[in-house]
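Researcher: Here's the sequence for the chain we discussed earlier.
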Amino acid sequence: MRYRLLGRTGLRVSELFLGAMTFGEQDGVGAPPEECARIVDTYAEAGGNVIDTAVNYRDGLSETIVGELLKGRRDRFVLSTKYTCSRNGEDPNAAGNHRKNLTLSLETSLRRLGTDYIDVYWVHIWDRNTPIEETMRALDDAVRSGKVLYIGISDAPAWLVSRANTLAELRGWTEFASLQVPYSLLNRDIERELLPMAEAFGMSVAAWSPLQGGILSGKYTRPGGVGGDEPARLDADSIGEREHTVARAVQSAADELGVSPSQIALAWTMAHSSAVHPIVGARRVEQLVDNLGAAELTLPAEVVAQLEETTGFRPGFPTEFIDGTSPWVYGAAGQRVVPRRFR
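Model: Thanks. This is the structure I predict for it:
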């Protein structure tokens, strides 16, 4: 496992993040504590050091289990959790990105996790009813208090994240070091605005659902794939032709390179941008072991191109318009200018 720097900070984080959304059994779904222990130990032995959870995962059971499993070794890990989602559906102030919910959610997470600080504290989703100025100032206060070391934001539009970090820079507040968004071969939306924005700000990108709910894991392209002996989360008949086409392309690349489809799908997210850290989640340690193999896989450029061609993705306006008019706008000499790279 290799390590990268989190955004523009000096914090070292592993290429693959471990998602703890599956930690805790509810209604027969999720991983029991003993399996969670095996998962964390296996991840740590592979060199992984980032565990990502949230105040609302499994109604708090995820944070509680993570806290128990990190006793005696908490400082070895980069512990990441989130707030925004409701802690009490009957209380309107128990949700959102305002200062009150941030304060109470943070104290709840610290207690469950059995720690006095959070390494990376995430805004879980954009709250339209809370001014971003209030959120950024409250987050900065949490950092200054020592209860939070770094901050990130999940599931928000690029213009909002840009405004937040610009405000923080101008006012001397803590800036978002990382962005958490969905990203996979079947969901490349972030390439339009969010990923270029993150690269321009030097932010790390934590990619959730890199296997698109298991569609890219091989479950639907061959019998007996990783997790194939478990009930699938999706009905195969509900998956569209585009999804099947991309899944078959991933399976073909996996067969060609002698690896698993999951490893191909995860490696693609990292091949497309050095800013991306896939979040790998598992209900069984065998699934995690397979996913961890992606850290050792470098996809040939032709395989990356073949995979992307099957997705039919288009960046749309304004990217296509700007690219298409560049020869006219900048002239012949302009085409020989080496482009700036943000990372």
